[in-house]
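ESCALATION

Customer reports they have been waiting on this structure for their group meeting. Please prioritize. Original submission:
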Amino acid sequence: MISTGLLARIEAKPEHAAHVQELLENALELARQETQTVTWYSFRLGPTSFGIFDTFNDDAGREAHLSGKIAAALMEIAPTMLTSAPDIQKIDVLAAKLP
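Update from on-call: job pushed to the front of the queue and completed.
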């Protein structure tokens, strides 16, 4: 049962917004490889604002994701392409409707 999640807000520097979007689109394949990630979404909130929402069955899955390739890629680009480090919040899932 899904019980934990992450919500990350990402703010790109205007000149790097297209590259950040591409990175988030391509990260889907990495998320598919993570056996403990139940759901994974990347989204755009505005011209330079992006986000990621993902869910896990437990804290172990969430921690595995936080030490995985997607998080590493975001931290790698943060100094040059983002206005600041991603704002990553751990959440508890109260209810979910899945297909």
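Sent to customer with the following note: The mean pLDDT is 97.
Escalation resolved.
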